[in-house]
Each structure stands twice: as structure tokens, then as C-alpha cells.
TrEMBL record:
Transmembrane segments: none annotated. PANTHER family: HEAT SHOCK PROTEIN 90 FAMILY MEMBER. Belongs to the heat shock protein 90 family. This is Chaperone protein HtpG. Keywords: ATP-binding, Chaperone, Cytoplasm, Nucleotide-binding, Stress response. GO terms for molecular function: ATP binding; ATP hydrolysis activity; ATP-dependent protein folding chaperone; unfolded protein binding. The lineage of its organism: Bacteria, Pseudomonadati, Bacteroidota, Chitinophagia, Chitinophagales. It comes from Paraflavisolibacter caeni. ATP binds at E33, N37, D78, M83, S98, G99, T170, R340. InterPro entries: HATPase_C_sf, Heat_shock_protein_90_CS, HSP90_C, Hsp90_fam, Hsp90_N, Ribosomal_Su5_D2-typ_SF.
Amino acid sequence: MVQEKGTISIHTENIFPIIKKFLYSDHEIFLRELVSNAVDATQKIKRLAALSHYTGDLGDLKVEVSLNEEAKTITISDNGIGMTAEEIKKYINQIAFSGATEFMEKFKEAKDANEIIGKFGLGFYSAFMVSDKVEIQTLSFQEGSEPAKWVCDGSTEFEITEGSRTHRGTDVILYINQENEEFLQKYKLQEILEKYGRFLPVPIKFGTKTEQEPDGEDADGKPKYKSVEVDNIINNTTPIWTKSPSELKDEDYLEFYKQLYPFSEDPLFWIHLNVDYPFNLTGVLYFPKVKNDFDPQRNKIKLFSRQVFITDEVKDIVPEFLMLLHGVIDSPDIPLNVSRSFLQADSNVKKINSYITRKVADKLSEHFKKDRKAYEEKWNDIGLFVKYGMISDEKFYDKAKEFALLTNTKGEHFTLEEYKEKVAPLQTNKEGNLVYLYTIDAAKQDSYIQAAHKKEYDVLVMNSPIDNHFIHHLEMKQEKTSWKRVDADVVEKLIEKDENLSHVLTEEETGKLKTIFEMAINKPEMKVEIEALNPDAMPVTVTMEEWMRRMKDMARLGGGGMGFYGSLPDSYKVAINGNHKLIDRILKTEGEEQQVQLARQAYDLALLSQGMLTGADLTNFVNRSVQMI
């Protein structure tokens, strides 16, 4: 017998079409919302029992998801607190916001399902994204309660009658509509449950699975096994971030990492987050082995709220440079499922962002101070991450300058301050500016490095994908300091001293030499200059001016505002060492053709040392060399 019929109190008849239309793109979240509601109801009965407000038998507390392909239904069942008919009217029929008119106005342009659900607590109503009809069978924990049944077909009409449930809890039965029959596949539900419910705090059962268990021994004394059907429990109810660090060993953290990222190498180390004021936040962040092939899009940090997976798009909660980390963050204080602009404006998000930055900096500092040798061994893996942080976050830079390392071609590591003290005596130029020399490819630029070493200069290795940006950033931070790539000029010009070398050539010889080399090279982008250099220096050196080359490199790597430099044609300086004996030989060689050929050979050698001699030019150089031998 019908007990009551009525209209859902939302002041409009258009609410369900809007839900169906605007939530459709994210329709799989219906399962997350309904399972989360069932978990909440289960946890509530546990709390009531703990407070002695419920003295009955709790029984086996779990949430069960069941699929009936023939009836085309999905049922989410719990044995939590249940509801009375009055509570159904209160919680289900009146949607818990003041007026749907405001709702419709605000979200008529909405494209994000999460935006609507999270803002108004419409979790239960996500069921109508996939259902023609939704039925609730429920029995309250309260003594003397009667079972109640609620049915709604997606219009604003509902019906409450006497229910059939005989024990405490709630069943939500979804009659899946034709457009969403993909959810009537067992593997699809398993996939969604694993995605969102893998670490829920109450066991989630989805059917059964077959396992092998010991069954004595065979005639040869070998163990036998038999197949048994057991509950298919989706989740681990106590993941490591819910525990105290004192309960955990290194193996526990590594095992959990393997659960999250089964195909990754072991992480370097990790941070266990646990704070309850001024916001609630738990989690574990891992430092992966990043090296130079980092991909922030892979193995992302996962965001949970009370152990419910929400998203792995955490860029507003976690500072950008920390997106290189892996792991889990769980906070009920992050405003969930709303538009990105709302998330950024939230004060808790900003506090959490700052807290995580501080914790990461403190952890790195602790490692550096505790065991510097081990820290240096890990630097190849974490250096990229630290530099990225220093470029993008001022507060992180202030802390990281104490534990960021620079590495030279000999494999020695220095903090920024240590390196400054090391090179200041020899690498200060005549203007009093400190010059840091670096290479991006020690093997390719070896001749330039050797020339620097002859002068007892030190050369740093800066070969990570963001080192151009890092160098640029350090130059802005460090007073009276400039960075020059070791092949950006001849060594005497990289760090100019008060020494005044002069070359032995007359003005006429200088002019003649310049003409010979311009004829040999015949490329307008190559600017020939005759220099007074050490007789032991290379006869010809090809370089690109430091500032222009760096701007072009940054443009190639996507540096903001650098696109203009990337479009400029390449321009090089060809420095001819007027004091080298080969240059003297070229001038003394008879015949212009022979002079040009020798000059071309010297120029090609300079290109070869830069890795710039390729294709037909390289072939011609080899053939010419064979003829000369």
C-alpha cells in the first residue's frame, strides 16, 4: 500500500535534466559517490556504537556492490545506520540547498560534473546520470523503526512505501538506462571501484574470486592446493598514510610505492605528511629517480579525501615543481570537485601548498646535513627537481641554496657558497666580476675544457634540461657573477685579465689573413676576427656569443618570451689566433688557392671540435685530409 507520494522539494522541474546533461561527461563518478555514502553510513554506526548510542550487534561491517546483468541493475548495499521514512524525506527529497533557481542560474553554463556535485552535495543524485529509476530499501538502526522504500524515475515525482529490508542498513538499486549499459560489465565496475575505492576505510566487496589454498600433500609429499571462492574485497582499509610513521618500516613504504607505481624503480626517499592544524592533511610523498628524462605527466601524485580517490590533477594543491614527486595526499579540508579558479582562491589550498614546500625543503636539508656523501650520490637523481624548485618558488630557493649542489668535470660537488670561494681567486676578471665556466657536453667540448684547465680554471657540468633557466636565475641572484659556456669564446676572452697579449702580425698581414679565411669559409653568419692569443691556443676557434646562444637554447626549451630569439639566424665568431705557427704557415704558403685550402682545413678542425662539421662538409674534410697526408 502506498504510504506517500509527493514532489521533490527543489522548486523546479528541470533539476534532473540538468543533472543528466551537465554530469554526463563524468558519469563514472556515480559509483564513487554512492559507495562513499555507504561508507559514511557504515562509519556512523561504528561511531554510535563506540559512544554507546547503539548497543546492538554491529555484525560484519562492509559495503557490497552487486551487479545483475539480466535485471540491468547495480546495487550498493551497506549495513550502516539506515534511514527512517522521515529521514528519507529530509535527506533525499529536500536536496539541502536553499533554492534550485539559484543553482540553475549559476550552473547553466557548467561543463564540469564535479563542479556541480561538489558545490551542492548532490552525490546521491549522480545516480540519475546512469539510471532510468532509482530505488532505496532501508531500515534505520533506531529501535522500533520500520523498513522504508523510496522510488523515483528521474522526474521530480517520488514514492515512499513500506520496505522489505529486514536488517539495519541501506540498499540503493540503480536501474541502468540504455545509454549507460557499459556499466553492466563486471570488468568496468571493478575498474571504477579500484580507481576510486582502493583505499576506502570500510571493506568494499564486489562479488567473489577464486583463490588457491593449501590442501595437504600428494603421494610424493608435495603440497596440494584447492580452489576456493572468497569475497572479492577491492580495498586496503588501512593504507600507510593512515598510520603513524613509528608503526612503519622502510619495506612498508617501498611496498606501498610498488602498489601505486608497479613499473617504477624504487624511490630515493620519502616524506610522511601528518598535520591536523590549521588544516588536516596526511600523505606520503616519494622522491623518484628523475634524471634528465623526467615526465611530470606520468605517475602523478594522487589526491584523496578521507581515503576516497578524487583526482591526480593536483597542480593547485601541490607547487608546480613538486609535480615531479609521486605519492598520495589526503585532506578533507581541500574543497573538492569545484572549478579550478575556486580551488586556487581557497585559503586552505594556499596553506597546504606552502606547508608541502616547507616539508620537502626540510627533508632535503636533513638528508644533506645527516649524510652528505649519500646525498651527493643521489644528486644526479634529485638535482633536476631541486633546480626546478629554486627557479619557480622563491621560498624554496631561500632554503635550497644551502643544499643545492654544483658539479664540476672532475665529479666534485660544491654548495653555491663553497664554489664561489673555490673559484674566486682565479676566475675573477679585470672588472672584479666572478666568471663561472660550464659545459653542457664534456666529451664534445673537451678541447675547450682542456684549454680552461691549462689556466687552472674550473669547469662545471650543466647538462640537465633546465640548466639554461637555472643559470639565468642564478645570475639574477648572484651579485657581480656571470656564467659563460666554456666554448663561448677563446679562453683568454672568457675571463679577461689585465694581460695585454699582442700578435706578431703586421696590419697588412692581418688584413690579408682575414680575406683568406673569409674566402675559405664563405658564410655570412661566420664573422672572422684576428685575435692576439697564446701561441699554444687553438689556431682557429668557432664560438657563439654566450648571451645569444643561451637565449636561443631557452627558446628551444620553451622559455617564456624567448620565441623571438629562437627565430633569429645563428651567428658565430671565428677567432683566428694570430700568434699560432699554423697561421704563420698559411701566410707564408705560396699561391692563394693553397692558402685558402689550408685555412679551410683549420676552420673545419675548429668546427669538428664543436661537433658542427656534418654532411658533405665532413666528407670533403676527410678527403682533403687524406690528400694532405
